[in-house]
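Recap from last week: sequence in, structure out.
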Amino acid sequence: MLSLGLSSPVQSNPPLYPEGFVRHFHTAPPQQKIKQQYQHAANLMRNGHTNQSIDTLKALLQHDNDYLPAHHLLIALLIEQQDYLQATQWLDNSEKRFPEKWSLRHLRARLLMMENKTEQALTHLQYRPPRLESAPDYYGLMATLQQKLGYPDQALPLYQQLLLLQPQQGRWWVGLATSSESLEDYKSAFKAYQKALESPVLPIILRHFCQQRLQTLQDYN
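Predicted structure tokens:
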């Protein structure tokens, strides 16, 4: 998932394009121009300049509305900024342009989830899903929604499949643990929380959650 960068209140905004970029941009072939502009937007995002990244992506799509990666990044940033109205408008445009792209269904589900439309989000994901091997995050969101809606028996086998594909992914272990706990399989839940803590990339908030659950379930060790 993308993360918001916080810049100092006294830090001036960077120029929309670095020195020399515009001169090179005008001399590059059309497709190369689009890729350069997209890469610049991605660099702005990585450096915490989210608003400038959004402006750059909008300008890119006004010039070439067929560049799918720009649609993806723009919508994801708008969702992250909690600008759900603009995210919806751009997503509507993207889905008209690319009606069968599962990656846009994934973004639509994320947006619906953030708007507390959980059942609608799950319905979007269940329509013509891609292969699990090519879209683990898609299925991870599906399992999260199933768990949230009270279907841990459906979420649990999905987490098991995801862990076969990505055994070091701590988020899937947390999901497996919570599903097991919901199904009152506390011994399996305890082991899954332990495995989650072995992941070096587990977010700190999930790490604290796992530690709390292990204390609660310590009798099942």
